[in-house]
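User: Teach me something about this protein's shape.
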Amino acid sequence: MQEIYNVRLFREEGFVRKKCSGCGRFFWTLDPARETCGDTPCVEYSFIGDPPTKRRYTLHEMEEAFLKFFEKRGHSVVKRYPVVARWRDDIFLTIASIAGFQPWVTSGLVPPPANPLVISQPSIRLKDIDNVGRSGRHFTLFFMGGHHAFNYPKKEIYWNHETVEFCHEFLTRSLRIKPEEITYIESFWEGGGNAGEDFEVNVRGLEVATLVFMRYAGEAGNYRKLPIKVVDTGYGMERLVWISQGTPTGYDAIFGELVERIRQMAGVKMPPEHILRENSKMAGIIDIESGRDLRTLRAKVAERIGIDEGELQRILEPIESIYAVADHLRCLCFMFADGITPSNVREGYLARLVLRRTIRMVRGLGITAPLSELVDIMISELAPWFPEIWEKRNYILQVVEVEEKKYMESLEKGVKLLERMLVEMKERVLTEEQLIMLYDSHGLPPENVKEIAEKAGVKVEVPEDFYIKVAKAHSKARHVPTSVSPVDKSELKGLKPTKLIFYDHPKISEFRARVRKVIGEYVVLDRTAFYPEGGGQPSDMGELIGKKTEARVKEVVKVGEIVLHRVEPPNFRAGEAVIGRINWQRRKSLMIHHTATHILLGALKRVLGEHVWQQGAQKGTDRSRLDISHFRRITPEEIEKIEKLCNDVIFENRRVIASWMNRNDAESKYGFELYQGGVVPGKKLRVVEIEGWNVQACAGTHCESTGEVGLLKILGVERIQDGIERLEFAAGEAALKIIRERENEISKISELLGAHKENVSEAVEKLFGEVKELRKKIQRMEEKIGNMLADWLKSRCVRIGELSVFKARVDDVGVGELIKTCEKIVKENENAVVVLGSAAEGSAKIVMMAGRRAVEKGVDCGKIMSKISAVIGGGGGGRKDFAQGGGTKIEKLDEALEMAVSEISAI
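Assistant: First, the predicted structure itself:
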């Protein structure tokens, strides 16, 4: 036994260490007769209908009891962190109470906001999403109560002894659970890059807390000791509420009133309590973590209560969907209130997954009310305890309405695609990979796919853990690009950090320095005013002047604390004194565009909403771009408002203040909006504030006031992917230059149209009207020519079996007329196959069309066209009923048309 498990409480209170007869794990108990560890599946839940606590708790009451207990024992209560982990680049969602303090605090780099501290943290884990509603205990979002202590070599707060004592006292004195009903199982935990020994705390079959003694960094057995020891505890608030109420499921304890309301809306009858009770008990014994054992669970419950398995499924499925809907509604409210915008990437994808699963289940229950109506009910329930959710009510409801509409449209398109896919399938089985592709790319739930596919005779097996697999694939740690060094890093060993003088002297354009080392074409200086590339801002360029050499500085990069200058030619030597001259016009333009990016982001948040989050940016000297998350397209009216706000701020000449702050102080003052530009490492942050407008942690170069930007012009907006809008803009002289260029273009157009600049739009409208009329005339002519050709072709019909084949070459006739001719013949004769060729202006065109019955008899225009178009030295293809092709070998056109007839004859 490791000494860390032999805690003071166990010795003083007479606990005994035993080995579980079920799972073989070691545990501590006050009951010497106990043979099992007290966790499922070794024992059943024994608290359902018989709570071990002296009173019932609501979730809010349990949180309050937990926080007050630890506050009285010297812990500072810390506010919850957002459910989207903006301060981290390795996870998307906040998965535990300790996640808010990883990696900066747990690594020892940054002090904690308080020590010790206690928090009730809403956490999201989607790895069990398929089990939500079924198991009685799984939630997508749950509140993790955590009391944490951070122990330094010279300052220990508390460790294993006190941690277990706190837990035991809370359970036995606050909640009044009998001590002999609690077991402490020895285990080992890892997560978020840290690990350590732990106790799993169980009461009557349910794990209610985990007490981790975090002292390692790493994963999968590859551990190293941390500089500090961290007490990382996680108490399941919902689970504690459940055992206090003894309800059949945890969902009844947490969402009781909402469950009843949804049940009435769906017209679903509540299953008998004994069925729910036995199902939850058995769900604990049969591990359905992977979803594979759901059928086993159903069979065991059915056997125990004496009911047919099919009947049990019919009784349970509706209420399980209701439970899951209630859970998902809460999860969505927190996701959207904390600023997630649904999209096809990162946390946006995960939010969309939960949202679409909720819509599917709501519709499956026969509820026709819009999902936003149910979400609004949940917002009202959460509002008294979470005013921030009520403040975001309008945004949350808008997102849900837009997403529901998108989803229904996506389903409609997806169904048509699936039907085409099923017709063309050779294998009559849809694989799991194909199911995931249909869901990921087209939003088609596997249940819908199964229903449609099986009607078409295609077999489909939907994994019970389908959504778990999808969520897992999209929850993987985001790729964190490592710093790529242009030189061998061993060459940098022993070099002192390069002093960055552009922060203290942002407008310095010339400086003196000394060469420390020359590595190939790169020069290392002791100090530099050249800005190295980073944060979406390109590096400075300029000159480096030595005693005998003048070199161009072409690129500047930072590797760790060393700045490398790529110069041409690199004819310098270590110790040489040099002068650096920055291309100031370039730097000035980059400073203007970087400051303009911050101004623009502030305007976007004010016009579109606080949910707007920077997803990427690239600053340039002529124009820049900013990518943001937003749930719908930005309108021209919104662009106008955004641009006006930006220029108002520029004309107000607000101060731009850059300062270094301790991470905790910066986060405490400004919140996680600091990380709009991405995660910034380090103990201290460089905070750039545009007075009363925008604040970000940013290492880039900026103007000293907004007035220096001069002007901002939005050049265009495009949706680069669902949920992500890209704005292209220019600032300063670059913006003025583009405006002048556009003015010149308007002048040229006005000259061509013979109109004054002020009347260009009216002149263009008039021109478009004339073009429209001409197109109508052309269309009427095409139809007339097509009819004449069709009448002429009828006399040239060749019968091949039951098919009527029409083949002709009609030169100098456009493709439009050829298609009209085909359409007229096929419309009148469903057995018709029409093949028409035309040569004009050095190329040959072929059009082929087949009627419905001709296609049924085996005609495939697409396949035939791919063969005959090769004859004329080109290519082509299409559908079974229509195809077209072309080539340059006009002399082979007649041969190609004859080949088409031969191909039809061979059918």
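Now, about its shape. The chain has five domains: 3-246, 265-416, 508-582, 588-740, 781-905. Residues 760-794 form the longest helix (35 residues). If you'd like, I can walk through any region in more detail.
User: That's plenty for now, thanks!
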